[in-house]
Amino acid sequence: MAELPAFAGEIRPAPLADALGERYLSYALSTIMARSLPDVRDGLKPVHRRLLHAMRQLRLEPGQGYKKSARVVGDVIGKFHPHGDQSVYDALVRLAQDFAQRYPLVDGQGNFGNIDGDNAAAMRYTEARLTPIAQALLDGIDEDAVDLRFTYDGEGQEPVVLPAAFPNLLANGAQGIAVGMATSIPPHNAGEICDALLHLIKTPKSTIAKLVDFMPGPDFPTGGELVDSRETLVEAYSTGRGSFRVRARWTQEKLKGGLWQIVVTEIPYQVQKSRLIEKIAELMAAKKLAMLADIRDESTTDVRMVLEPKSRTVEPQVLMESLFRQTDLETRVPLNMNVLDAHSVPRVMNLREVLQAFLDHRQEVLVRRSKFRLGEIDRRLEMLDGYLIAYLNLDAVIRIIRTEEEPKPVLMKRFKLTDNQAEAILNMRLRSLRKLEEFEIKREHAALSKERKELKGLLADEGRRWEAIAEEVRSIRERFGKKTPLGKRRTELGEPPSDVIVPLEAMVEREDVTVLCSEKGWIRAVKGHLADDGETKYKDGDSGKFFLPCQTTDKLVVFATDGKFYTLGVDKLPGGRGHGEPVRLMIDLAQDHDIVAVLVHKPGRKLILASSDGRGFIVEEDEVLAQTRAGKQVMMPSDGARAAACAPAAGNTVAVIGENRKLLLFPVAEMPALNRGRGVILQKYRGGGLSDVKVFDRAEGLSWKAGGRTMTETDLTPWIGQRAQAGRMPPRGFARTNKFG
Is the pLDDT of residue 646 over 60? Predict the structure, then answer.
């Protein structure tokens, strides 16, 4: 056996599952904590925090000049964030986009993309600097306000979290996908957040409902209209999970001659305008927006989408409701407040917990900054005491410095100075002697002593600290609140939309078609109302079974042998070219079951259902409509039986015929009306089962099709009986198929 090389190191046998689990867990934790989830205190992910910190080190304050984005990105990946430059630049671009960030943290100069989805220019062409809001996030970072840690290469330090005087998490929101968890927080109005914070300081046990009074919902940078009820908002903020329904904002513009058009001025958050217009155009081409004639994009720096109706008689609300239902003019913005808490533990917080975490962070920052300032004051007072002693004994100090080889210990012993005081006196320049005036020293000493007393009082009194934090929050509200151009609320708070009835014609253009469905279940819709002349072609070995003249706005009701009803929109059926498509591709019909009946849905109609063992019942057709591909179970056939017949129940008499060619007629009043079930016995058989069932008006007689002709029997007395009887042989000339046709 070959010897292992010396550099192989320790080799430990381990089960593959354990080794993979350990490594995947490390990857998952890294993704959760260092990439995808924001910190609840400053609302930032590591890449954003490092961007702001690097820009501060480059002195890119709001009042200073811009620097190339490439310079910023280079510093970030070189000092703090060893990842791809494009990913870092993408993060920088997003912080500068006023349509992505409610309160941008980067002031960009150049092409930083647009709401149409166009990308930003390369980083060598754009420039950037910090905004005042970013400066508020960084304020106090040099005053020991937060912990620092070594960078990835150990050569420098970076902040673990920013001091964050601005409530960035809720104000700008966050999105991220980690391993096994995700976060999605929409942006909110900073002024409203500050109002909620002030209330929470005053009332720490405030209810979520009361906080929602101050923060009535998200405030998106692209505006729009929030159309959720207050109850929905309170529920979402109470659990930290939910979604918000946002609609585009639109107005009706009147034109000459009684014409009008709709102008969309604001679209939902994170919807690309160009893709939205493209989607609407596709729906128009597919004839899914029958009431819309044209769409134009007249946008400049502001959004302006013009929608032209096909007719002046169209109701604007109905037209817009059809667009809201089919396009991204209405979207749902998810809420999932999954964040890292102060101990770097990911968890979903409710609104009060998020606000309280921000306040607790500000409390900690205030304490740390106060202690840092207190230390600086103590050091300065120590120096001032030394300077005062030197001023009062100036001649003696000068003589000691001139005559002694080691003046420092002599000064310390003679005037009882500390090491720092003696060092400060020895380091003074001669020109400073003229400034050593007792009055100035005492005035600075008194001011610092007063500040020191106030800071000690602040650190000793929690109530005073909360008052100081409340004052900071009021300052943020004054700078970035609703009275400022940036802080003015953009998203309108609307009411949940009333139930506007949108006729199907508003979504689908009405056209005459004929639906053809073959024996083997291939379905298609041919334009126009065709005659059932037997010349329609099908695949080899297949033949026609259902022939239904209808319109594209109709729905089809499909009944199968498993007792389920399925619903198909005629407008969604394949066209007449070719042989169509298998209906099993459109509904979840099991391979061992077949189609019994296909009907054009008529609201308010009743249907009679029957199974192969002779059981059946009446059902309202409106109750059988299915909402999904899986269908709706209505009939529950007995073991060994199958659903066998479905027909409109219009009339006063039921006709049922068995495979034994026995016909029975009885009043429809003997049939129960059910929404779901097995039904009652319609006819008894010694052998075989049910063949067909029909409901008709006795006064008009019983009709059936035989040999291409329709025959009618009016003297029905021999076959009239009661439900569950056996019946007798049908009239002469009845179809040999035992079907009514």
Answer: yes
